[in-house]
Amino acid sequence: MAKRSQGINTLCAHAGELEDKQFKGAVSPLYMSTSYAFEDVEVKRYPRYFNTPNQQALAQKIAALEHGEAALIFGSGMAAVSSSLLAFLHKGDHVVLQKTLYGGTSNLVTEEFKKFGIDFTFARDLSAEAFEKEIRKNTKGIYIETPSNPLLSITDIKAIAGLAKKHGLVSMIDNTFASPVNQNPIDMGIDVVIHSATKYMGGHSDILAGAVVSSEEKIDTIFQLAKNFGGSLSDYTVWLLERSIKTMGLRVKAQNENAGRMAEFLEQHELVEKVYYPGLKSHPDHELAKSQMKGFGGMLSFELKGLDSAIFMKYLKLIKPSMSLAGVESTILSPAKTSHALLSPEEREEQGIKDGLLRFSVGIEEPEDLIADIEEALEETRKDMVDVRI
Ligand SMILES: *Cc1c(COP(=O)(O)O)cnc(C)c1O
């Protein structure tokens, strides 16, 4: 009989848990040892080898959540991104990447790859044709991120996975914005799924971590490089991350729901110019998002109509200005001033990132309270702007 696969909240709560054989405690015991016996044992355990009991248990949980065979846990999302890319790209190789990538990933590629003799091209747009056009004889990998930051554009995961298979390339995706609750790229043919666990997996703005999920074989390739680079996560934080993930399904579903409500509220508001949210019918990639996502996520962006977004942000009380995202608390930022400040104004313009654009990471608060906060801040900002004009 085929094994019944469990649902997301069951996997979040139970997959990979360690049994407390000694005391029968309810949660995974925490093993902090950096030194393990090496005689008469099968596995030589050491935290930097990614094989302590807690690391292996959490890797099992995350692999189950992403429907992959195996996983590795890292000290940051960027350690997961860099280890994955550098494991499959060697001197003389070429990689095609999506243009609208997380800032740290763009920096890694543009600032470091030359040093390693790795060539790269950013595809002109998100279409599979644009990616295919850039494939050369020495291309070895293809790298995407969807939904993208900050405009929540959607890349066709199946089309990219198919393209990679056709040309014998390793396909990689940064699945951070969707989280495994909303999107499982391995089911669509992607080889390597990367997460900044700092975001939805951690979910409480208090953990820096990363994860990679793939086949046993590809995880071993990444492991061979990663053990030398030394980016593993402390077992204490591994344990804390396991605890956080237990509620990830509940949190992310609440955030999906809230973000949908916020997007609809903002879209009909007379002081809002434009809302970017894949769950809105007005989003150009709505149908594609519907076909590959189980939920539309907790991130959205918007532009105000004739109001100064910096003043608006100052009037928000509940929604806090913050660099990071995906916590249970709602946060907001100006991409032009923070995450995309390093781009030139022309590059931002080209990517459609207006100076007044605001990126909203929607938390788990009651939607009515979030709406009240936004309404008050919009009203105060409008009054200010009128005063300035007088
Ligand atoms: C935050 C983030 C990263 C980097 O993760 P860190 O944990 O900060 O190293 C990578 N990709 C995306 C989409 C992110 O949001």
TrEMBL record:
SUPFAM superfamilies: PLP-dependent transferases (SSF53383)
Sites bearing N6-(pyridoxal phosphate)lysine, chain numbering: K199
One Gene Ontology CC term in the entry: cytoplasm
Top-level taxon in the UniProt lineage: Bacteria
Stored CDD domains: CGS_like (cd00614)
Similarity-based family: Belongs to the trans-sulfuration enzymes family.
GO MF: carbon-sulfur lyase activity; pyridoxal phosphate binding
Keyword line: Lyase, Pyridoxal phosphate
Full protein name: Cystathionine beta-lyase
Pfam families for this protein: Cys_Met_Meta_PP
Necessary cofactors: pyridoxal 5'-phosphate
Species, as recorded: Salinimicrobium catena
PANTHER family registered for this protein in UniProt: TRANS-SULFURATION ENZYME FAMILY MEMBER (PTHR11808)
GO biological process terms held by the UniProt record: methionine biosynthetic process; transsulfuration
